[in-house]
Amino acid sequence: MTDVVLVDLHVNGERHDLAIPPRRTLADVLRHDLGLTGTHVGCEHGVCGACTVLVDGAPARSCLLFAVQVEDADVRTVESLGHDGQLSDLQRCFAAHHGLQCGFCTPGFLMLAEGYLAAEPDPSREQIREVVASNLCRCTGYQTIVDAVQDCAAQRRAIAGAAGGEE
């Protein structure tokens, strides 16, 4: 059996050539090899969603993926959301609606919501509830998370509408 494999990962817009054990999870590579500790590992069974990242724009549980499985894919972590020390619109909505308490699950919810809103920019409240139910939070009761995602979707639609009206 091979002790290490060479893998080319594209994470948050940067390329990383790594020599890693073939069975190393994406979550472990992100946290331990790349120092991207925003991705949290909770259950290590794909149940809690704390480790959710985007792989080619779709939410994925990084604890269930071997890093070699995402070679040449576009991987985004929570660190990709803010720029120049500023929070993203989604992060600001989570803060404004108190969609976080202890913060452990927050990166997973943020990435889940980011991927979902990219695919569905005009979700109903019920659709948002269904989506966020796939991640676990023991502190907030989900209502504030739903509020935050709904508010962010509305803000993004308003901006898109305003930009469309300028043409």
Secondary-structure blueprint:
Blueprint: E1 5-11, E2 14-20, H1 26-33, E3 52-55, E4 58-61, E5 74-76, H2 89-96, H3 106-119, H4 125-132, H5 143-165
Parallel strand pairs: 1-5
Antiparallel strand pairs: 1-2, 3-4, 3-5
Helix pairs in contact: 2-5, 4-5
Describe what you observe in this structure.
By secondary structure, the chain is of the alpha+beta class. It has helices spanning 26-33, 89-96, 106-119, 125-132, 143-165; strands at residues 5-11, 14-20, 52-55, 58-61, 74-76. Strands 2-1-5-3-4 form a five-stranded mixed sheet, with helices on both faces. A hairpin with a 2-residue loop joins strand 3 and strand 4. The longest helix has 23 residues, at 143-165. It starts with a strand and ends with a helix. The model has no long low-confidence stretch (mean pLDDT 95).
Spell the H/E element sequence. Answer: EEHEEEHHHH
Amino-to-carboxy terminus distance: 59 Å
Domain module tally: 2
Largest sheet: 5 strands, mixed
Strand content: 5-15%
- Total number of strands: 5
Radius of gyration: 17 Å
Poorly predicted runs of 5 or more residues: none
Helix content: 25-40%
CATH top level assignment of the largest domain: Mainly Alpha
How are the strands of the biggest sheet laid out side by side?
A: 2-1-5-3-4
User: What is the CATH superfamily classification of the largest domain?
Assistant: [2Fe-2S]-binding domain
Average pLDDT, rounded to a whole number, is 95
CATH architecture of the largest domain: Orthogonal Bundle
Q: Count helical runs.
A: 5
- By secondary-structure content and strand pairing, the structural class works out as alpha+beta
Tertiary shape: globular
